[in-house]
Specification:
Elements (H helix, E strand, L loop, with lengths): L1 E5 L5 E6 L4 E5 L2 H7 L4 E7 L3 E5 L5 E6 L8 E6 L5 E6 L5 E5 L14 E3 L15 E2 L12
Parallel strand pairs: 3-10, 10-11
Antiparallel strand pairs: 1-2, 2-5, 3-4, 4-9, 6-7, 7-8
Bound molecules: zinc ion (2 copies).
Amino acid sequence: MSRTASCLCGGVKVEMRGDPIMKNLCHCTSCQKSFGAAFGSLAAYTVEQVTFTESEPSVLKTYTDRSPESGDVLNRSFCGKCGSPVRVQTGKRPDVLVVPVGIIDGDKADFKPELEFYCRGRVDWVDPIENTKAFETMPPTYPATD
Ligand SMILES: [Zn+2]
Ligand SMILES: [Zn+2]
């Protein structure tokens, strides 16, 4: 099934084809800062599944995040006009694109997380999501499937 996503101003549009290869929350400090939220809610796809389109002139900007607790470098892309985070790509797995669930258009019921990363950073008023597999830091393999 094909789904779409867009930033707050609509300058960046995304089409995702097929199911995500991974759905997770991330409680790391870097995601908290970047998403301006208590945690990141994320859907990962292969590069082939996702198409980004942007208005002219180009509004898509990328911040190279060298702070992640995983030691990886993350390319965090956002809309330069409205500031919405629209994509995360890890240095170690450039073949995987991560879309923040909050920018997905319409119903988000299909994007319930299966995994939670960096639970050591979970804020104490956020309970574990039912039926998720929780990791103190990262799972041993990325992307993890269960
Ligand atoms: Zn925008
Ligand atoms: Zn994170």
